Structure formats: C-alpha cells, structure tokens
Amino acid sequence: FSMVSLIFMVLIPSLQAKDPEITISVAPQYLFEGSKIMFEVKYIDSKRLRWEFGDGSVAIGGPKHNHIYKERGVYKVKVFDLEGNFQGPIETRLTILKEGREIILENQVFFPGIPVKVRTRKFITPSLEWDLGDGTIKIGGHSINHTYKTSGTFTIKVTDYAGKGPKKITKPITITPDNRSIVLPKEIIAGEPVDIQLKNAVGGNFTWEFSPGQRASGLFIKQMAFQRPGNVKVTIKDTTGKYPPLTQNFMVKPDNRKLNTSLTFALPEESVRFEALQFRGPVKWDFGDGTVRTSGSKTETHQYKENGRYTITARDFNGNSPKVFSQTITVNELTPGFQINLLEIAFTNGKYYQVVSKKSPPPLYYVKMKAVGRGILKGKWIVDEQVIGLFEVFLHQNKIVDLRGNQVVSLPLIDPGIHHFTIEFTNYAFPRTSRIPILRYFVTETGAIEILSPEPGAKVTETKSLLLQWKWASKFKKKGYGYQLLVSEIPVQFLTEDQIIAAWKAVGNKNQYRLDVSTFKPGTWVYWQVRAVGPDDEEVLTTSEISSFKLSK
After folding, report:
1. Using CA atoms, how far apart are residues 108 and 112, in angstroms rounded to an integer?
2. In this structure, CATH architecture of domain 8-96
3. What is the pLDDT of residues 57-110, one digit of tens each?
4. How far apart are CA 48 and CA 85, in angstroms?
5. Is the bond leading into 177 cis (omega within 30 degrees of zero)?
6. Confidence band (pLDDT; 50, 70, 90) for 477?
7. In Å, how far are 410, 427, 441, 486, 543 from 384, measured between CA atoms?
8. Model's pTM, two decimal places?
9. For the chain, what are the domain ranges?
C-alpha cells in the first residue's frame, strides 16, 4: 500500500438507505492489537451515545470515538443512542489481529559516534516514518543507519504509511559511553611479536581483521607480528552481534636495529666494544665464548682470552625478542695484513758493535718497532743462539714502540769473546728479503783497542793509501799475539757471520796498517775494525769499536 485511503466503511444492514452506520479508520486486514482505531457513527444527530467496544470497555460520547484493543480477538461493537433518536443498538463486528511488526537492533550494545543498524520486520508499507528519539525524524525503508551523538536512553518509533498508520511500533535503545579500548605497546617494530588486548568488552566472540590480511580471534592476542612497516588498520567484530565493530589505526615502525662491533679482528685481551643500535633494551648478550650477560646495556665491552672465531648475538627486550642480531669476530695475535715496517735494534750510542769489559755493567740497547695493523708480537731474546728471555709487545697501527731499560733483557757478560744478540719472533715471519738486525758485543778482560786515525767519521783525501793506526789501551802483554783487520764498504751490522769471518785479514803485530784505498770508489764510506788474536789466530783477545771514514770525491 502506498497512497491508499485510510477510511474504510463497515456497513450495518438496514432497510433504509440512510440508516446509521459505524465506520472505522483502519482496513480490517490491518487491525492489530494496540492500534488506535477511530470509530464514527454516521447519519445520526445524537450527541450523547453509549459505546460498548466488546472488550469490557464502555464510553459515553459523541458520534466519534477512539479506542485501542490491547489483545487480539473478535469483538462486537455496539452504539446506543441515549437521546432516543434511534431505536436499538448500532452494531459491527471486527477482528483484532496479533501484532507481528517489530523493530530489530543489529547489536546489543551501542555507543555514541558509532552507527546503529536498525531494521523492521512485518511492516505493511515500504515507506516508513522513523522517529529515532533524539529529535531525528525521517522517511525511509525497512532498514536504516543512525548515529547517536550522546549517551542516553532513546525510544525509536516506526510508523507505517509514512507516519500515517494507526500505530507506532517502538523500541528503546540505550547509548552508553564506549569504554572499549585496544591496548597496544607504545611502539611496534616490524617483525617483533607483540601482545594486543581488547579491554572493557564482555560476553562477545571477537574476530580481529588487520589491513595486511592477518586475522586473529579472542580478547587477548598473544605474540602477533607485523612483518611490514607502515600504517595498520584493525577492525574488531563481534560475531555474536552484541557489540558494534571497533576500528583503530596504529603505526608499525621499520626495524632499524643493528649490531655493531668496534673491531672485526681483535687481539687476545683487547677490549672490543659492541653496540646494539636502535635497541629498546635491556639486551641479552652472548659473546660466543661462554659469556652470557642478561639485562645488559645497549653498549658493552668484552675481552677474549684465546684465539678463535666467535659469534656474538644480541636479543632485545632482555632476550624475549625472537629476533637475533649477530656479528662475528676473529681473535688472533696479529690482525690480517699485519706487517712490521720498522725494526731497529742498536746500542744506545747508536752503534751495532761494542766492546765491553767483563767487569763493567751490561751494554744498554733499545728495540724500536712499528707495524701496519695491530698485533701482539711474541718473541725470544737470543744471545749466541741461546734463548735468554721471552717478550710480548702490543703494536698499534703505525705507532712506534720503543723498548729499552727494564723493558729489555740484560746482556750477559760472563764469557769473554764475541757475542751475537738478536731477537726471534714466534708468531711472525719476515719476508725472505728482510733480516732481523744483529748486535755484536765483545766481552774483554784486557780492555778495548782504541782507534787513533783516522778518527771515526772522518773525511779523508787520500786516494791511493791510507794509514790506519790504533793502540791497545791495556797493559796486558802476551807473547805471540797479532792483529787482524776487517774492512768493508757495507756496514758491519748488515754482514752475515760468514761474511764477517771471511773479511778478517792478518796485518801483523804493529799498531798500524797502510790500507790501499784506490780500490774504493770516491765518496764511499768505509767501515773497519781491529782485533787482537793469539798464536795461530785461534783466540780473540780483544777488539776495537767499529770505525768509519769517507773518501773524498
């Protein structure tokens, strides 16, 4: 029914064309219990009528009267003229139908600001008047959405015939403050599981739909991980229909955490700094050597005692994070590419040979080293191929280490004669083209031979022969001794032992010798040394220091 007349005639059989009759305002098929029905008696002048409605209700009034039947049934309506203008009652019979129309709310709990879905059932016409109870009245169909702005209890009224129907179907609705909340961590990191909870919602069956396509169910979602950073929209639906959907947006941050180490190659006992960058903390550290540190800070230092390759792991949230960050570090006494580019061994007077009295203090010397890379050099102090001590020195990148004094071993002066002192590395090998310097010192009981001329470092002009002179400072006299002379264009410290042995030549027993210098190139430095030997050149009694002179150009 769209635009039909709401006035229907119920005629009382009569022999006269204008006999009084009762009309009602509702078609018989729409006489529902609770409907307000307008009765009217026509063709009668009486102003005082008695109305009997058949349900026990009686009323005195005029020719028009309203009545509502509360229950379904068949009722006979009688009207009596109390003024006597008409004899006998005017009667009509009507059937009141059971009311089946109803308003249905899609949910059971309603909140301000969230649309309420309402629909009707068994209403007669497609055009209904909706009175939502908050001042909103609109014409609509059999379902409608409405948003209440405030809390409170409202009555929804729906009327057929676009509001002209005989009865308003009502439904109370209570709008309560929405105390539901989705409890999220303050920060969500991509790939990091988190716990999510819906609070202040009881009695529903909840499903969670996340915008990346993930789903979950329940009030408490445990260990949910979002793999991609960005904005995430979650909608919680109650499959029981009690609660309306709840929607919330949150941000998933990119995982910028990483593990840094100050060194990828470390030396034993060297402090290595580890940084858990962008971690939230505390951090559980495993340094790979059996050392585990819980509730650690974001920056830690550690020392490794032994050589090896170690894997370091760091887990955020004191180890509760399933994501493991790792780095590897190699511990060795020498870092890759380590190379000694400076090694100098000399007596403190700058020379490489020294004559020392047996009764004097040991000669002082120093060792200087510099390297590319870092390393803990280990080695041995060696005199005459015998180990007299061990050493260990920490070399930093391009920093000179100068060992002397109590940092080096004392040279022994027990046995008279020539001694060779050097060092030997136990964890490093020089290239074949390099040699470790050797210091030579002579322990004497008779004193050293003193060089007279030319003076050490002198520049000479002679081109053919040069007189070399010396003297023996000691009063020691021994029959049969003589002198041997060593002359070389190469600094003596760079000669091998075999070269030195071959270079010694007997020059008699006088304290001088004329040297042929014509065989040397002009401008050449010449190095020479004298020693006293016993009979048959078997015993070396004493020596001079190594001296030098430069030939004129």
Report:
1. 14
2. Sandwich (2.60)
3. 999 999 999 999 999 999 999 999 998 888 889 899 999 888 888 999 988 899
4. 10
5. no
6. low
7. 14, 21, 11, 21, 18
8. 0.58
9. 8-96, 102-175, 181-252, 258-320, 339-444, 449-551
Q: What is d(CA 527, CA 550) in angstroms, rounded to the nearest whole number? A: 9
Q: Which residues pair with 399 in a beta bridge?
A: none
Q: Give yes or no on whether 8-96 and 102-175 have one common fold.
A: yes
Residue carrying structure tokens 């962008």: 278
What's the chain's average pLDDT? 89
The CATH superfamily of 339-444 is Immunoglobulins (2.60.40.10)
Q: Which CATH architecture has domain 181-252?
A: Sandwich (2.60)
Identify the H or E element spanning 157: strand 152-159
Q: Helix or strand or coil: residue 30? A: helix
- Tell me the backbone φ, ψ of residue 266, rounded to 5 degrees: -125, 160
- Assigned CATH topology for domain 258-320: Immunoglobulin-like (2.60.40)
b/e per residue, 284-299, with b = 16+ CB within 10 A? bbbbbbeeeeeebebe
The string of DSSP codes covering 423-489 is EEESS----TT-----EEEEEESS-PEEEEESPTTEEE--SSEEEEEEEE-S----TT-EEEEEEES
Let me know if domain 102-175 sits in CATH 3.40.50.150. no
Strand partners, 67: 37
